Amino acid sequence: MSLDQLIESCKINDTKAQSELYKLFSSKLFAVCLKYSRNYAEAEDNLQDAFLIIFKKIDQYKSKGSFEGWLKRVTINTVLQQYRNEKVFEIVNENIIDEVEIDIDEDTLSIDYLLRIIQELPDRYRLVFNLYVLDGYSHKDIASMLGINIGTSKSNLARARQILKQTIEDYKTTHSLQSL
């Protein structure tokens, strides 16, 4: 069955087609959920919620553009809605901090470590960081998606970078002292 046929079958609530679509895209969408969630269990819950919404709204997909891109947008919006409902962004700091450069030494820092420290960022910083740095959204788009203003998006990104830089510097100091 082609992807287009699968989508059409999902539009008429064919449970076999829905199961097949889930099998096809769940691992990619789980990676998206994991990036925006606080932990693994929350990412699993978010994936299930995202698929419920995908199946509910699949008739809105009009075969224009990438289906996978549409799935990713629905998934991100599902996860972000949870944070909007929790009022994660109520603390507003409009002070724009200078752009922070993060020096990453690939020999000392593993990708797992980097992903872990990003996931440990406070929600408002992690979400903006992921949307801007990892998924390439503009501050205007982020502000719209999260219900915040552009200045808050910029401020939260700068703060996320500061926290990550400090965490990496602390890690490097600790590990260089251990090797002495």
Automatic annotation (TrEMBL):
* CDD domains, alphabetized: Sigma70_r4 (cd06171)
Going by the UniProt record, its keywords in alphabetical order are:
Sigma factor, Transcription, Transcription regulation
Indicate the segments forming the RNA polymerase sigma factor 70 region 4 type domain, all copies: 112-162
Instruction: Give one Pfam family, short name only.
Output: Sigma70_r2
Q: Which InterPro entries match?
A: RNA_pol_sigma-70-like, RNA_pol_sigma-70_dom, RNA_pol_sigma70_r2, RNA_pol_sigma70_r4_t2, RNA_pol_sigma_r2, RNA_pol_sigma_r3/r4-like, WH-like_DNA-bd_sf
Reply yes or no: does the keyword Ligase apply: no
Q: Which domain of life is it from?
A: Bacteria
Similarity section:
Belongs to the sigma-70 factor family. ECF subfamily.
Q: What is this protein called?
A: Sigma-70 family RNA polymerase sigma factor
Source species of the chain:
Mariniflexile gromovii
Lineage from the top down? Bacteria, Pseudomonadati, Bacteroidota, Flavobacteriia, Flavobacteriales
